[in-house]
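Supplementary Text 2. Reproducibility record for the structural model of the 707-residue chain.

All settings were left at their defaults, and a single model was retained for analysis rather than an ensemble. We include the record here because the model underlies the residue-level annotations in Supplementary Table 4.
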Amino acid sequence: MQTNLFSQLKALITSTAAFLFVASRNFFKFYQGNQKQLTKAPKPSFGRIAGLFFGIFVLFCLLIYQFFNIQIIEGEKWTKVARKQHFFIIHDPFLRGRFISNTDIKKGHPHTIQSFVTDIQKFHLYVDPESIPDAHKNAISSNLVALLDLSLDEKQKMRSQFDRKSRSRKLAMWLDHDERDAVFKWWLPYAKKYKIPRNALFFLNDYQRSYPFGKLLGQVLHTIQNNKDETTKQAVPTGGLELYFNKYLQGKQGKRRLMRSPRNSFETGEVLSLPENGADIYLTINHCLQAIAEEEIEKGVKKAKAKSGWAVMMDPRSGEILVLAQYPGFSPSDYSLYFSNPKLIDDTRIKAATDAFEPGSVLKPFTLAVALKANEALQKEGKKPIFSPEAKIATSNGRFKGRPKPLSDTHIHYFLNMEMALQKSTNIYMARLVESIVNTLGIEWYRDNLCKTFGLGTKTGLELPGESCGIVPTPGKKHANGTFEWSASTPYSTAIGHNIQTTSLQLVRAYAVFANGGYLVKPTLVRKIVKTSQDNVQTVIVDNTQRSLEAQERVLDPETINTVIRAMKYVTKPGGTAPRANVWGYTEAGKTATANKIISGKYSPTQYYASFVGFTPITNPAFVLLVTLDEPEYGFLPGIGKTHHGGNCAAPIFKEIATRSLAYLGVPSDDPHGYPNGDPRFDADKADWILESRKLQEKYDSWNKSK
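Retained model, structure tokens:
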């Protein structure tokens, strides 16, 4: 500051001395040229001379004061004014962070970078209206309209921008290289011909989101709005991962100072600060698996004439989400069409995370697991277990205390054991188990173990906005209408997946407990987040690649898991509710559901959620996979059955996605004889679980046919 002040004083003294020197020299020349006339003139009085010199002195002092005021006291102010007249600052854009596919999922393959979304360079066209003569404004705007592919609204606004009192008005946005070059090709000769400053029209660089795979993963990724925030100059996300990770994806604009000059190019200038790019987010989702799932979901929804459908695939050990597919899809590039259309806005949501609904029969394996845990708890106290999995239990009477209407099954089953009950998806058997649990250990024990074992009633913590936690009734808590959430009949409903609401993410996480040996893992969409500096140094901000299964909470013991999995294996074999989910050449375990939707507070007789969730192969599963269809067409086909049932519309989609995904991942077959009749590879004596299914069916027939 002192150095700057000294420089200004020095400049002031120098300029003053120069002024005095020039004034004295001119006076001396004037005196020499007019000496004779001056000598003949009457001599002025001393007072007149003194007054003249005093006046000159006062004027000189005023001049010195003004110099001092402008250059020192208000020097900074007038420097800024001068700079604004001759210089201006532009902001150089940064690259927003990318979302990168999980190409490491195929072990032994070379790592490659494949982006789901990236930034491409675009240009915004600006005009400096004050640099263009009025006579040329109409001609210039007309030529630009002819050169550029503009909307009607943009065309109408363009001419008005030339009449604004401004040095910078935006004419067009998001132009590509070809459009920019076309403008330059016309403009530079025109400006030269009519002696208009060539930078009266100029371009500013920017980056626009680009989606190499189009709609793929659209609901998960979302996008950013075309116009940035006017204050922060940052992008405005529309939802999804763009919103959740906005603070990581954001960068920092660079700055350049440019001179206003006809000879100065707007593409150059003094760099004040370089742009700082946003961080890249390496997702757990693989683009090939995602494409497979989206293709099969679309085919399945159309075939079932459903309202919509989605699929979730997760690695049961790491919790990494491998697929989040949904149909109808969402195109991020056309986001405005979706948000402005009430019929399309529903397609912007990630329904697997946001929509909680009664899951139905896919909850029945949880009921079996909790019942087996009840046996363990009672045995530790030296008490009798509530049931034996092999025991013959009567299941024809659906009356339960507190229920005005009896429970029923799709078919009458007089006697069942645990494996038959899951194979046939009976409601009465499950309710009898929960009745015994509640009568023996109490309501709180049952509810706590159901929730804590499988993570129901709480968010999974997946990195997405708007995740629902679902609803698990709480004893003693009231609804808004004053009725209690938990009544005497509630346990029998929750046993079969009713009077409880879950999300698809919660269900996938819960089934992973069976697939990974009893651990409740935390799902994630992110493997790592990496920030790259200006000198190309990478810093890992978030690292989820080293997560250990053993570090997670173990909620089920191996014996309980094996017992439940054994029962689930019957579901996809002859006699089960989902033989169409049988993945040829592999073992699998899973469960179907066909749950009535609640419409206006009542169960709809024709509108359903149809689901299948399972995992494959059974030993060391590659993934857990859930498929859900919303409102498949209600109907019946001879030889197939009710077309809206999960086993008929959701199970085949599970099979197709699983088959193609296992092939892509290179997972070797673990059931080489498990193929359909007529296939040369089929061997009924060696195929997995065929003989066991026959024996179970024989036992079922002996217990029920004579009735």
